[in-house]
Amino acid sequence: MSAQAVQVVPGQGQVVLHEAVEVLEDPTGQLTLDAVRGQRFAPPTGGLSSFGFTSSAYWFRFTLDNPGTTTLARVLVLRTNWLDTVDLYAPGVDGQTTHRRFGDTLPFGEREVDAPQFVLSLPVAPGPHTYYLRITSAQAFMTPMELWELKAFHESDRLWSAYYGMFYGILAVMVLYNAFIWTSTRDRNYLAYCAYLLSFFLMNASYNGFAYQYFWPESPRWSNWAHTPFIFGFQAMALWFSMQFLESRQRTPRVHRVMQAYLALTLVAWVVVSLSGDLVAYNAAPVYFIFLGTPLILTAGLRAWLRGYRAARFFVLATMASLTGSFVTALTVSGFLPYTFVHFHAAEFGILVDVVLLSLALADRINLLHQQRRAAQAQATRQRLQASFQLEKANIRLEQQVQERTAELARARDEAEQLARLDALTGVANRRSFQEVAEREFLRARRYGHPLAVLVFDIDLFKQVNDTHGHAAGDMVIRAVAGIVRGAVREVDFLARIGGEEFAVLLPEVQLLDAQRTAERLRELIADWRGAFEGQALRCTASFGVSTIEADDPGFDTVLQRADHAMYAAKQAGRDQVSVYSSLF
User: DSSP secondary structure string, 164-229?
Assistant: First the structure.
């Protein structure tokens, strides 16, 4: 007996399948589809099937129910990119079962969609249909599964690309910056930090699938083998950087010897598992070594701090962030923690905190050196003028480094400001972004004598939704309304959330009558929407105000104010309607 079917209906952007699939372990890896159809599957547990490191194959079964009369185009997304083989058995149009195989043991070019995760087209025909997945993986066995509408998936993928673009961009800036300082100062701390960041980049790009996609797409064997050396390499670089930065040889010699021994043990383990021929042990060993290396490096930092090394205070905090993030990610892929976005990406969040804190640590170290050099300069001045001249040159060089670092942080701040132009809840533009775009369009329309219209609309009785169903339901309604309008306006139109439940749409090259028609169409789409939250039906309406620019308008705020007045007039007239400013005043 299959678990309850997952209903698939139009307007569903995403369905999380791994919360509903049934699971069957195949320790021998020999079971066929006909054999498993007669087996008893474990019922869904409401969470992700995560099995750590195992040589077993696993079968997953789920049923999709399309209550409509037309086939719905969907894509199946498996977020874990290192699955060795994935066999999908789906019902065909002729009643026969269709079979597709994919996985990272195949060349990247054979994938249906050019993406680091596995994405397959999965049309859902009317009625209930049962699907089977057989998955094997010599690496950490996680199976987050999602079913997406095409448009929603591409929008989500765009946001993921922006996230990783920002993340790897920050890493690249920090590597280049510290490499430049190293070439200028020959301070091995900066060289070790560059190696540490580069090793994290290779490890992260490897287990996120980007390395396979962009660096060696025709080498699936190397892609499978690369995870282990990159994880071991990251740990080795973390140990080397820690010993360099903490000056453990001079400050904490006993801890230094322990770290040297652990580094040697790490390298030996790397060689041993590479020669063992056991793929599960080969992939599990570097992850388990993180559990030992993380507390060791934290202990080394605390010992140096307690012994009076001031720069170690930032190091301890930075290391706690980055290595704890790696620790949490390792626990997740090992099956000790449930898969969540935060758990799996904890290493990335940790390294971002690490970048900031270690920048402070390196700056603090520069300040410490600056103080030491000034003291040496004062002493040398009393002895000979030449020594004073040399020390002054060193101070100037350090000041230049501090100024360059300050400029780099300013650039990083500007990049972060660009990310602040989107509304976090809906993904559309926020008020700040809308105001900037609207001012530009107003000046353009005024200069060339072109029409420009603006719609302002507000969800009716929104407070009742929050009071009756809770704020989570209110957030769902806001997201739904944003999605409806975003999908219904032109590509050149500009949608923004300008208040709690208030939105605005900029309509370039649109006259008043056409703007009124657009508003009426959007109003009907919103009124037709139906949703559900925790078993409770949801619906909403919206009141629209319409205005266009006039010859004597001093600025866009005047146009927006007229549309806002018209919208409030629509609410006073009974809500769920469109009001045009020119017809009211």
Answer: HHHHHHHHHHHHHHHHHHHHHH--HHHHHHHHHHHHHHHHHHHHTTHHHHHT-TT-HHHHHHHHHH
Domain ranges of the chain: 6-148, 153-421, 431-584
The amino acid that residue 319 corresponds to is T
CA-to-CA distance for 387 and 393, rounded, in angstroms? 10
What pLDDT, on the 0 to 100 scale, is given for residue 49?
Answer: 55
Distance CA 461, CA 539 (A): 11
The pair of structure tokens assigned to 337 is: 């923690």
Q: What is the pLDDT of residue 398?
A: 67
Nearest 5°: phi and psi at 377? -65, -45
> Do the Cβ atoms of 427 and 163 come closer than 8 Å?
no
3-state class of 341 per DSSP? helix
- DSSP characters for 160-175? HHHHHHHHHHHHHHHH
Q: What is the pLDDT of residue 385?
A: 65
Copy the structure tokens of residue 190.
């900066």
**Number of Cβ atoms within 10 Å of the Cβ of 158:** 11
- Into which CATH architecture does domain 6-148 fall? Sandwich (2.60)
Q: Which long-range contacts (CB under 8 A, 24 or more apart) does 215-224 make?
A: 217/107, 217/108, 217/109, 218/107, 218/108, 218/109, 220/104, 220/105, 220/106, 220/107, 220/108, 221/105, 223/104, 224/82, 224/84, 224/104, 224/105, 224/138, 224/139
**DSSP secondary-structure letter at 421?**
G
Sheet holding 145-148, edge to edge: 14-16, 145-148, 75-78, 118-121
Beta bridge partners of 465: none
Which residue in 291, 280, 263 sits closest to 228, CA to CA?
280
Answer whether 542's CB lies under 8 Å from 459's CB. Answer: yes
- Rounded to the nearest 10°, the torsion over CA 436, 437, 439, 443 is 140
Q: Which two tokens stand for residue 322?
A: 């980055």
Domain with residues 431-584, CATH architecture: 2-Layer Sandwich (3.30)
Question: What parts of the chain have a pLDDT lower than 70?
Answer: 1-3, 44-50, 333-335, 358-373, 375-376, 378, 380-382, 384-391, 394, 398, 401-402, 405-419, 583-585
Give the chain's end-to-end CA distance (angstroms, integer). Answer: 66
Select from 461, 459, 508 the least CA-distant residue to 482: 459
Q: Which residues are within 8 A (CB) of 192 and not within 5 positions of it... i.e. 6 or more apart?
A: 237, 240, 241, 244, 245
Asked whether 157 and 113 are in contact (CB, 8 A), the reply is: no
For helices 279-306 and 253-276, give the axis angle rounded to 10 degrees: 170
Consecutive H or E run containing 118: strand 118-121
